[in-house]
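User: My collaborator and I are trying to settle a disagreement about how two of our proteins should look. Neither of us wants to argue from intuition anymore, so we agreed to look at predicted structures for both before our next call. Could you fold the first one, then the second, and keep them clearly separated?

Assistant: That sounds like a sensible way to settle it. I'll keep them separate. The first protein:
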Amino acid sequence: MAAAQAALGSAEAVFLQVDIRSRAAVMPMVVKAVEHFGAIDILVNNASLTGPPAVAAFLDCTGEQLDAIVDTNLKGTFYVSQAVARFMVAKGNGGNIVNIASVGAFAGQEFASAYCATKRARWRW
């Protein structure tokens, strides 16, 4: 987070660390952003679980590993998008939601079958 703050320099920003796998944690984050800025006009979903535990051969991927990947890369993205979209709709003039996928959404990668599946699902909303 410190690197992002440094890169933004004097730009106005609010930095919140939230576990997007928790639907209950997402809405308070969105409310804080709306309270600070008055609205949300754009959302960029870039959070992703990579590396261990996301790295596993297809035949060896455990239920816990799959849950962690799906909960972060797919469900977390959905939770944040849904919460932000509610505020965008209520504002009346929409907004933009950008989902960052991965090359893994278009071609399988070794030891990343679950990761690639979630990235593809995220790309095709």
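The second protein, kept apart from the first:
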Amino acid sequence: MRNADFARALAHALHRPALLPVPGFVLRLALGQLAEEVLLGGQRVLPKKAAETGYQFLYPNLQEALNQIVG
């Protein structure tokens, strides 16, 4: 999931608007290397092993999980 999609899902769960995105260079200026490591970097992670072993997630999609956490 892209960060923009996560932000929209979180805003929806909080019943708040998803405001304008902050440009990466602004975050780099404000936070330096921390911005790259925590906010701007990314990884593609798939639950392949969990699926192979038959694990079933309690909330199969992000919106359901966020609604339960903050709703």
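Some points you might bring to the call about the second protein. The chain has a mean pLDDT of 90. The radius of gyration is 15 Å.
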